[in-house]
Amino acid sequence: MSEQFDVIVIGGGPAGYHAAIRAAQLGLKTACIDSWVGPDGKAALGGTCLNVGCIPSKAMLDSSKQFWNLQHSFGVHGISVKDAKIDVGTMVGRKDKIVKQFTGGVAMLFKANKITSFLGTGKLLKGRQVEITAPDGTKKTIAATNVVIATGSAPIELPFAKFDGKRIVDNAGALDFKDIPKRLGVIGAGVIGLELGSVWKRLGSDVTILEALPDFLGVADAEVAKVAAREFAKQGLKIELGAKLSKAEIKGNEVHLTYAGKDGEKTLVVDQLLVAVGRRAFTEGLLGDDTGVKLDERGRVVVDDHCWAGVEGVWAVGDCVRGPMLAHKGFEEGMAVAEIIAGKAGHVNLETIPWVIYTEPEIAWVGKTEAQCKAENIPFKTGSFPFAAVGRAVAMNEPAGFVKIIAHAETDRILGAHLVGANVSELVSECVVAMEFKGSAEDLARIVHAHPTLSEAVHEAALSVDKRSIHKAN
Ligand code: FAD
């Protein structure tokens, strides 16, 4: 008979490991199957986020920011450094060490919580049985009362620009370049393209980002996108909008790109090409016959508001289901499902999930944009405040950007917050908390904010909703 568990989680990324740890905390006998193998050939829990996503990209963004600041920002403080150099091997090595620390940390947490960990690929069979194929091809079947699918996502590959891992790469490849590409092409001006494009630009690459859509960062607030575009242009990041790639040919050490631009067909020659056109749910080979689990037209597991997959005891969370492909969304879904399985109330509010782009300046938002309010006929008012008028931001030499709060015109309830500037990845949390507690702009405006801090921009933006900002003309 198959070994029996209360919960089997397929996938040990952010969504899966949160589900597994929370289930084990609640006293459920839990197993997690994950297929990720690290560069040392051993299991590396943590999925995309820890191995080739959130954490390694932030490590590289931080290293490259230090190098950039050394060359471009230290002068204003009276600090000069001659002949600054970067050793890419050391930088990538630091990133790898951080990744190992965190993937190992998840393994330790699994051990501490007595979670049975299987290295291999899981396939859901009928009747909540899961077949595991180990890396050496051996198979075994385990069973559970509940199965949580958390198989995540994979980069989308363009048929005319196939990844070769060297010249044409995905996010994993762009985090592991051995040398700084002299000319780097990036396809897609989304979160990943902007972040990884910024890393290599700061290190000295000539970076060109081609974006098929006519608007820059169409998902963000239009004013935020405008400020970000201006700041990126100042940094020398070239972003061409309305540029549709049709061909990428590797010729020797170069990649020759052909694309339809605003003024007709164009060509661009680069040394390396990062294709960052989005990610797709990773569900191939996941389902056996007659499981009853449905996939939508984008290969995502179809779930209801509580991540239930429509079959008794089967759930799905994270990037492999609807909603934003963000690690923290997966964390919350994983924990919520574990709690529901244990008979508790688990819920995730998709309306208050913060988005962050860790460029310079950082970009962050939560809730609705002005455009969405208009499209949905929601009456709204806005208040904004520039970092250029925040003492701390100026003292830090980071005056770019602003905070904007959108509130309902009649109830004053906060509908959205849009931030661009230094450390807004941290500042957005305050807005999320306010929205989660159904707070009003008045609530934020009456909360004492420490002086001098960047958070004063949030305070002043909230005051400005009611035209009573102190440090700017209303
Ligand atoms: P994944 O992290 O993809 O994990 C799924 C796991 O399941 C993997 O380990 C996979 O090997 C395993 N698996 C798949 N199929 C099977 C199977 N059949 N059997 C066993 N195991 C299987 N998000 C943020 O919130 N903040 C960021 O700053 C951020 N930065 C990012 C930067 C980059 C470069 C990238 C690529 C992504 C970034 N993301 C970020 C997105 C984030 O990484 C994902 O949203 C998150 O990892 C999704 O978690 P998940 O658990 O759903 O899936």
User: Hey, roughly how much beta strand do the residues contain?
Assistant: 25-35%
At the first level of CATH, the class of the largest domain is Alpha Beta
What is the multimeric organization of the chains shown?
Answer: single chain
Characterize the largest beta sheet: strand count, sense, and whether it forms a barrel.
7 strands, mixed
CATH superfamily of the largest domain: FAD/NAD(P)-binding domain
CATH fold descriptor of the largest domain: FAD/NAD(P)-binding domain
Structural class: alpha/beta
Outline the low-pLDDT stretches: none
Rg measurement, Å: 24 Å
Tell me which ligands are bound: flavin-adenine dinucleotide
**Range of helix content:** 25-40%
Overall strand count: 22
Give the N-to-C terminal Cα separation. 72 Å
- Whole-number average pLDDT? 97
Q: How many domains is the backbone divided into? A: 3
Q: What form results from the Cα inertia axes?
A: globular
| Number of H- or I-type helical stretches | 13
The CATH architecture category of the largest domain equals 3-Layer(bba) Sandwich
